[in-house]
Amino acid sequence: MSTARGREKVAFAVLGLATLLTVLPILLTILYIVKNGWDGLSWEFITQVPRSGMKQGGIFPAIVGTILLIIGTMIFSLPLGILSAIYLVEYAKDNTFTRLVKLSVVNLSGVPSIIYGLFGFTLFVILLQFGTSILAGSMTLAIMSLPVIITATKEALEAVPASFREISLSLGATKWQTTRYCVLPYAIPGILTGTVLSLSRAAGETAPILFTVAAFYLPRLPRSVFDQVMALPYHLYVISTQVPNMPTQISFATALVLIILVFLMNLMSIILRAHYRKKKQW
Amino acid sequence: MVAETVIKTVNLNSYFGEIQALKNINLEIYKNEIFGIIGPANSGKTTFLRALNRLNYLNIAYRQEGKIIFENQNIDEIPDNLLRKKIGIIFAMPQVLPVSIFDNIAYGPMVHGTKNKKILAEIVETALQKAYLWDEVKDRLNLPALRLSGGQQQRLCIARTLAVEPDVILYDEPCSGLDPISTAKIEDTMQELKKNYTQILVTNNTKQAARVTERCAFFLMGELVELSETTTLFTHPADRRTDDYVTGRFG
Which of A12, A175, A224, B156 is 20 to 30 A (C-alpha) from B123? Predict the structure, then answer.
């Protein structure tokens, strides 16, 4: 048969193989963690405080800590990130300065997380005297998440057809009304995706919380935002490397809990996205 | 009868970056007339139309010299949202928002402060009736506007513009994507609207200009070549280039 047909088969095979090679390691990692951690999961494990040098009991304070940090990160990064993206896309004049700001934002998302950790430590813990606290940790994670949230929001806004804005403005709507009613509603699915992605990354980060919030061992719940907390990723790091003779099942179960938490966040965003898509038809 | 001037341009020059799109345009548009603008592509007719409600400024490369006077006021001194409420526009391709028929029309009045559902429903009905679309859609106002046919969508756009109660309606080649029957319906609508609105029609279709307009301007490469009564323009054009264009020798 023709060579075009042959090439088609080669292309199909190469593309399929590439996809397989991408998906397989992730799938295997998850399966490995589930296999080794599943038996460690129990009601006790997720509702009890750690005991006997963290070798027994549960990881309840770390779960609560991570959830609190996610919420804190969201509070600080979401409004700031989305509003500044709106400014950059809808309001800012297209000049050298704006382009420089946009470029910096993209580059900031490539900065290693330990840099954010040290920056947060210097600014929030030392200079602003928040101490090692949920407040300092959330703000550090928020700063780390901002570039991704801004970039995702920016792209979601830019993907809304220019004609929507033109229609709205031509009817005498103000710029803000146009943004509010004819741009944002259509950008929300994209904004959600980017935001949840960056928040799940924040949930799994160790370096930024290392000096700003994470407690090595604190078998109680925090009393205020100025309290330290345990957090899942740091706890995982501690029990995997700092505690001798740790049962591996506990490490795997902890990892599994973290993965499930992130998975639940993504599930929530998928449901929200579907909800918004259903409302708008285009 | 002395015609009342609604819009007047004085030495209007327009530029997109280095390119001059309009060259020293001086003309007046009278109340309740249908004013036609014809000309080949890149003749500046759309630029002229969009200059009248400052939509050109959405393009950051746009610059303008000269004055546009609307109801005795320089339009640059009128806030954009108020100006565009008074001077509405119908775009070349039907541009509907991906929401329901009702919401498309209610949007304009809503941004101008009407929140009451009952009043909005009345405005929507009136606007749809004026655009001769009411009978076709009255049972399915909650249907996505994108499900309507092209011709219906364009009349929806007219209804949407009417809903904010403008004085002037600009049409930017409103029938370029439509079939002859839909085109005829739009032209009928324009004739009906003459009683209460000043209308400016930019069109590629010289026959349409001849059918619909009362006075007509011929634009060529950013210049206003000729402006006269439509019948005169089409039967005894003063300029050779106009004659060539309306008889189809170029364009």
Answer: A175
**Residue pairs between chains A and B whose CB atoms are closer than 8 Å:** 68
Query: Residue A229: which domain range?
Result: 58-279
A167, A169, A281: residue with CB nearest B146: A281
CA distance A54 to chain B (A): 56
Range B138-157 average pLDDT: 91
Tell me how far apart the alpha carbons of residues A224 and A133 are, in angstroms, rounded to a whole number.
9
Interchain contact, B161 vs A171, CB within 8 Å? yes
Domains of chain B: 37-51+79-246 (3.40.50.300)
User: B84 and A169: CB-CB below 8 Å?
Assistant: yes
Q: Is B222 left (phi over 0), alpha (psi -120 to 50) or beta?
A: left
Interchain pair B98, A280: CB under 8 A: yes
pLDDT in tens, A99-115: 999 999 999 988 999 99
In the predicted structure, residue A64 carries a pLDDT above the cut 70: yes
Q: What is the pTM of this model?
A: 0.84
Closest listed residue to residue B217, CA positions, set B50, B26, B12: B26
State residue A272's pLDDT score.
Answer: 84
pLDDT at B210 exceeding the cut of 80: yes
Q: Is residue A232 part of a domain?
A: yes
